[in-house]
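Thread: "does anyone have the structure for this chain?"

Original post by V.I.:
We have the sequence but no experimental structure in hand. Need at least a predicted one for the grant figures.
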Amino acid sequence: MSYSIQTIAEALGARAVGNAGLTVNSAAEPASAGPDALAIAMAPAYAEALEQGTARAAILWADADWEGMGLDAAILVDRPRYALSGLTRLLDSGPEIAQGVHSTAIIDESAEIAEGAAIGPFVTIGRGTRIARDARIGSHVSIGADCEIGPEALIHAGVRIGRNVRIGARFTCQSGAAIGGDGFSYVSPQASGMEEARAELRDEVENTGHQWVKIHSLGGVEIGDDVEIGSNATIDAGTIRATRIGDGTKIDNMVMIGHNVVTGKNCLFCGLSGAAGSTKVGDRVVMAGQSGLADNITVGSDVVVSAGTKVLSNVPSGRVMMGYPATKISTQVESYKALRRLPKLVRDVAELRKTLSNIASKD
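Reply from O.Q.:
Generated one for you, tokens below.
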């Protein structure tokens, strides 16, 4: 599909200059952009490569000299990455899933499929589940019993959704994600060594000879509107109440959300981050890559947890956390600086002891 420069600019709320009627059918990096592609050169450093390609139009920063670059047309934007979001959304047609139900899909007779939904090959849908209008479900997706999939959802191939999962509107789920499996929750008939060590901060524990007994997950999962789940992410079902993911939250690949976790709205969980069971997370919290939250803690709104950080206790709203165990970033930086000074301090102390020893020997 082709789009005029004017159409793209209007979709982005940006300004079109030059031949706004010129059409493009794709986006490309400047050096590889052909005459029918829109070159992405939203900073001067990228625009230098325009001369290596043959693009006639580009998306540029707000005050760029587009004519000096030899272009026929340009789209000028104030916030480049935000513009890139709109451009990619416009050009992304998504997976091809034919409207209606594929002949190989297995759908329980009690399930409800709304008008406009698209159900791909080899999909299975369980008892009492409802699929809302214009939802698109890719091949080999399995959806358990008593689920609800909201309108305009897009579920990519190979996703696994367990029983009793409620999902809101405009949901996106990438391949391989698993939602609504049992939580990792076990107990022993008598107090285990782990419980004793945790309660009393013991250095050693005795052999209690216990066995682990499973606590089953009955609560399911509730996911709000405009949520996206990445490939191979996992969201466990709650024990009695549901695990809840707030509106607008985005969860990256290989993220782990434990049972009974409640997240607020518009959170970001970056790759390999995770939240252990029964933790409460406020709104707009950012969990950077490989960061983690311990179980049964509360994290306030607008908290930023930096990469690799391990949070072991409650965090007030607005705090930026770093390190393991996590502290506020200024404390962590101060501690790191002090740690780097330790070798010199050890050498200075050794020299001082040597000097004092020499003085003492002379006396």
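V.I.: this helps a lot. The two ends are 94 Å apart (CA to CA).
O.Q.: and The longest strand covers residues 57-61.
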